[in-house]
Amino acid sequence: MTNQNETKLFPAIFAAGLLSFSGVIVETAMNIIFPVLMKEFHINTATVQWMTTAYILIVSIFVPISAFLKRRFKTRSLFITANLLFIIGLVIDSIAPTFSILLSGRILQGVGTGIALPLMFNIILDWAPENRKATLIGVGTLITAIAPALGPTLGGIVLNSLGWHWIFILLLPLLVISFILGFFSIGQAHDTEKKGFDFFGWVAIILTFVGLTLAFNNLSIIDSKPIQFIGWLLIGLLGLVCFVYQTSHSKRPLINLSIFKNWSFNWHILAFFLIQSIVLGLSFILPNYIQLVDGKSALLAGFFVLPGAAIGALLAPFGGRFMDIFGEARAVLSGAAIVLIAMILFSAFGLVLSGQAILLIYAFLMVGVGIVMANTMTSGLAQLSVFHQADGNAAFTTLQQFAGATGTSLVSAIITLQQDRPIGTMAVNTARGSMYAFILLLAFIVFAIIFLVAALRTRKTA
């Protein structure tokens, strides 16, 4: 790496990270204003959840082709395209008069984020010296992890003072800064390759994520319309089978499936998926619990979850250092153990959580998340060769986004099922649904720990 590239590395990471940051901050700010959107557009919890689900679904569809895009197009061109799409989406949402138009803007933002999100980590993998990659992955994680810390608070403040449209308007200057920094700092590490695109493989990916996401979304009506759930689930599973078959026989696969022959990598990515599902599932549950059960304002809901999210974000860049000092096993397992204890507390007291209790337990949980997340990704990618790391990054980033759709859809469905009960108040039914959702997320962390133990036992030690 030349000195010129060294001086441009941090601005390039920051530019790509700022774009990803904007996508996550809108996502978490939306969770705060869901009750307001439900009243304004006369929709229920399952419908308003599409603001998050549709966005994450679109991101999940585009991230898997990031390895192809990286090899086919110049990195700067990809960044510019992603940035402009996100800006258009923000403009649409800033003036949206109906829920359908609001949703269309989120979809465009999802396309932009889906292209941009892998760019930050690909820039690190391409340009960073080996002895700094773990630290810079932590810094990259910080950029996107700080967004959940600020999102709920930003949503509450803006909602109470300006109105929800301003959440989108206020992000436009950040996107302009990101565009300028990226335009002048993002370079090209490798020559582009004019290879064909596995279109049928991508269609199979779309069927997989659309089918599985809609299946999870239809859990809220499974008692009255079970065919819809089963139908979408079968479509998702069929898409997955078709993707594996097509990719195995394609001369230009979107993702090299040979990375999944490494079982340590597989265990790492499964654990990462479950923990990310917990984090984003809680980002939906907690703000709504504080408002609908405890009767607090959106602003207070944002402030109650701010300390925990901030702790998790600030610990992210230091997670690699923690692993360097104590080793992989102690780092990831201690972080996962903290998440386990926190989820036990949420599940045990799910019916009677006060805002203060949520603040303390969530802050404790995010200490564990800050330690375990970045280290799990770093350790997992370390199991792959340099040639396969772009594919590994695409796999991690894809499942990270799909985890959001999975976590939020599942907990939303569980809560909606309880809210629709003919007996009990909205507050009581929301609390009961939240408790059941906490128990599901508790099961997730138990399985994540099992997977992490398996990953550590089979990892490369050289």
Automatic annotation (TrEMBL):
Domain Major facilitator superfamily (MFS) profile: 8-460
Subcellular location as annotated: Cell membrane
Annotated Gene Ontology cellular component terms: plasma membrane
Lipid bilayer topology: Multi-pass membrane protein
Endpoints of the signal sequence: none
A molecular function (GO) term: transmembrane transporter activity
Keywords: Membrane, Transmembrane, Transmembrane helix, Transport
Membrane-spanning ranges: 12-38, 50-69, 78-101, 107-125, 137-158, 164-187, 199-221, 227-245, 265-286, 298-319, 331-353, 359-382, 394-415, 435-456
The keyword Membrane is annotated on this UniProt entry: yes
InterPro entries, sorted: MFS (IPR011701), MFS_dom (IPR020846), MFS_trans_sf (IPR036259)
UniProt entry tagged with the keyword Transmembrane: yes
Superkingdom: Bacteria
Name of the protein described by the UniProt record: Multidrug efflux MFS transporter
Lineage, opening ranks: Bacteria, Bacillati, Bacillota, Bacilli, Lactobacillales
